[in-house]
Design goal:
Layout lengths: L5 E6 L28 H10 L8 E5 L3 H10 L6 E5 L5 H15 L4 E6 L3 E3 L1 H16 L3 E6 L10 E7 L6 E8 L4 H10 L2 E11 H11 L1 H12 L2 E3 L2 E3 L2 H5 L6 H6 L5 E5 L3 E3 L4 H7 L8 E3 L2 E4 L5 E4 L5 E4 L4 E5 L4 E5 L6 H10 L10 E4 L2 E9 L2 E8 L7 E3 L3 E9 L2 E5 L2 E5 L4 E4 L5 E4 L6 E9 L8 E4 L7
Helix pairs in contact: 3-6, 3-7, 6-7
């Protein structure tokens, strides 16, 4: 591999519907530890940090996930080049364009490695070995993707038909064609031919070459992304793209915008293990299985169960008897039970739950905030009980509520309390009362997490009964 610097660009969006109930809109699958102790997002960032000549990563995400991205990077000790916030989702081509423009500002010859944040990859050494020829091909102006050897006739992926050997780079081929998702009969033919590979959705290209190709095929998109970046605003260390300019971009994938049109498309045959974890059966297939073919996680007990994915993420024991080829996933507030062959319908189920305005689509029982998290313990008419955890040095907004009062009990750590003009501290087993309408704030001045029980009472207990007067996270608007 050449000595040219490579710039990992990690795309972190998504709505979290196919792996519900674990994945939710405000905390989708890339932020979950689905196959280990770290999240898929963290695994992606660490994998690239260990690549040769890797620069700091560029993250493209949205406003809702910005603090999760920031926190998870801090947990693994990675300082990003930038975290860019899309004001609205516009598919992968505008994201790739913004990334290329940003990298070109830093390094005119920079090589972009564009990666989804929610793929599961095994064999890191093989990944780095395959990255080397991709970078070599990109240095001389090619747009490179990774082709995955199909293990079965998959109808849910696009395919790449490989062409001639790349003249100067080993294990690299010209792309003969990008092919749409096939029907089953066609997918079987692709598998037998040996010339078709799954399109992994990972790309390697020089920023300058990509921008040249984009200008050829999507000149309006190139201009709109440049305008959105130029007019973007720095906000608490994040870079917000201009909303009006970015909204003017067409919603189009990098495949349609550039890869299917360019004469410079190349493909490297991947030797590493890969899964996009697009549905529960994919995670079952990628997980370690017992002698009965079960992938099991959490507090569970199984009897006469075969070839199933069983996962308990809640506080309760999950027991299963006499089933096979099933997906059974339990969280504190929801349970999914489905045959593996119908697990793809989870997305339709989530759509129906969304239409019914069920909160389980959006939030986990543990709701993450930039200052920490909260979790509902109990709720009924006119009262609600939460467990609140505030990170060291963090503070909630200076705020007031119109329709509810709050009792705070410190159970671990030290709290600094603002009640109108009074500021004081509470230790473990001490409490205070916040009447409706009182200006207040909760802070953690200590070095350890603050744990607190909050008891709300009143006629309305919704999260929107809040007036923020000051906020460290730019939420007063």
């Amino acid at each position: 591999m050449t000595g040219q610097a490579i710039y990992p660009v990690i795309l972190s969006g998504g709505s979290g519907s196919r792996l519900w109930p674990m994945s939710r809109a405000h905390y989708p699958k890339q932020f979950l530890p689905l196959a280990g102790d770290l999240s898929l997002f963290q695994e992606t960032a660490l994998r690239m940090s260990r690549a040769r000549n890797a620069a700091a990563p560029l993250i493209i995400t949205n406003n809702e996930h910005r603090f999760i991205v920031d926190e998870q990077l801090k947990q693994i000790g990675i300082e990003p080049l930038a975290i860019i916030l899309e004001p609205t989702g516009r598919n992968t081509a505008p994201a790739a364009a913004v990334a290329a423009l940003k990298v070109a500002e830093v390094d005119a010859d920079g090589i972009v490695v564009l990666l989804p944040s929610d793929h599961l990859i095994s064999g890191e050494d093989r990944f780095h070995n395959d990255l080397a020829p991709a970078v070599d091909a990109a240095v001389v102006g090619n747009m490179v993707t990774f082709g995955i050897a199909p293990g079965h006739p998959e109808t849910g992926y696009g395919y790449i038909r490989k062409g001639d050997n790349f003249p100067t780079v080993e294990n690299c081929f010209c792309v003969d064609a990008f092919v749409e998702k096939p029907d089953l009969e066609t997918a079987i033919k692709y598998l037998k031919s040996g010339d078709y590979f799954w399109n992994s959705g990972m790309f390697v290209f020089s920023a300058a070459s990509f921008l040249d190709e984009l200008q050829k095929f999507q000149p309006g998109l190139s201009t709109q992304c440049q305008n959105a970046l130029t007019a973007g605003q720095s906000d608490l260390g994040f870079l917000r793209l201009d909303e009006k300019d970015f909204a003017a971009c067409p919603s189009i994938s990098i495949d349609y915008a550039v890869m299917e049109k360019t004469d410079a498309a190349a493909v490297v045959m991947a030797s590493f293990g890969w899964s996009d974890v697009g549905a529960w059966p994919s995670l079952w297939q990628a997980s370690r299985q017992d002698e009965q073919g079960n992938a099991v996680s959490g507090d569970t007990m199984l009897r006469d169960v075969q070839n199933s994915y069983v996962r308990s993420e809640g506080k309760q024991l999950l027991t299963v008897i006499g089933v096979k080829d099933m997906v059974i996933v339990s969280t504190d507030d929801a349970v999914l039970v489905a045959p593996k062959e119908r697990a793809a319908e989870t997305k339709d189920l989530v759509d129906a739950l969304s239409e019914a305005r069920r909160s389980e689509v959006v939030h986990h029982p543990k709701v993450h905030r930039p200052w920490g998290s909260y979790e509902d313990i109990d709720q009924d008419e006119r009262f609600r009980v939460k467990r609140i955890i505030v990170k060291p040095g963090a503070a909630l907004s200076l705020q007031k509520h119109s329709q509810r009062s709050e009792h705070w009990v410190v159970v671990k750590g030290r709290a600094r309390i603002t009640r109108d003009s009074d500021v004081f501290e509470l230790e473990e087993n001490q409490s205070t009362y916040i009447p409706a309408g009182m200006i207040h704030r909760l802070e953690n001045p200590g070095d350890d997490p603050l744990h607190l029980i909050e008891i709300q009472s009143g006629g309305y207990l919704g999260e929107d009964d809040i007036i923020r007067l000051e906020d460290n996270y730019g939420r007063t608007k």
